[in-house]
């Protein structure tokens, strides 16, 4: 523990010395021991606490931070922030890795069933963890129904799995969770207890709730396996009106989706977002339906699914974008028990 001596002037005018505790600095780790935030030069207990409160509680988060972020969050000087980042980058292996190493790391990826074999096959076995999956389509196309179904299906493989539902349009219905759970053999009472719901009233509140998911995992020790945002763009679309605000809106959506991406990758969970659509008036041939959010949402979403209504009450899912799967379509029904095959 670091200490410093300060001069104290007593009431009688005599000067004395007092030893007070300064920021705690931990002893360097022995070779082979895992480094922590406290092992970074210049980081003591107070600084570490500020960093942890802002979500920078591991070395990789500091390594990829900018000096400006650390100056603002931890209250350190820019020179100290640069030294912290440089130290962490030297300690971590942040270079290239071979394809076989990356393939081995991808063994952690899990795939959760949608309830429809046809839809699972379209997605390569189910909805993947560690990435953002976006579903867009007009009202009644099944976006929210798939979200409710996934909230139940994550509990089939792991009864302790928890779903977080960020509700921006008042679409979450506990009755649907009960119906789907009963139909799929999951205890409806337990299913409801394992869904954490929060109503977002504006875009700032929505972004804050996404950041709070990490607290559920770390402080409340919940095994979060699914984060649903229904819908992603509703508040942004309502608050940023006109072409003049487009750049600000896109930057804000980009920050929001980066937080969601970090959650998915760090904690090996599914991020499922629904998106609204608009009709392009200049489209003369083909489907004029286009997702809101432009290239920002498109680039941040690893899997993009376009849902539309089919014949005889069915739904059609079209895989628009994927890094490793071909485009294709799958048809399914939505009934009392959730998503099912035709």
Give a quick precis of the structure:
This protein has 342 residues and is of the alpha/beta class. It is 39% helix and 23% strand.
What report would you give on this structure?
This protein is α/β, with parallel strands linked by helices. The protein folds into two domains: 3-91, DNA polymerase, domain 1, CATH 1.10.150; 104-340, 3-Layer(aba) Sandwich (Rossmann fold), CATH 3.40.50.300. It has 13 helices and 15 strands. The strands form four sheets. A nine-stranded mixed sheet has the order 7-6-8-9-5-12-13-14-15, with helices on both faces. Strand 1 and strand 2 (15-21) form a beta hairpin. It is globular and about 65 Å long. The N and C termini lie far apart (67 Å). The model is unreliable at 1-28 (pLDDT under 50).
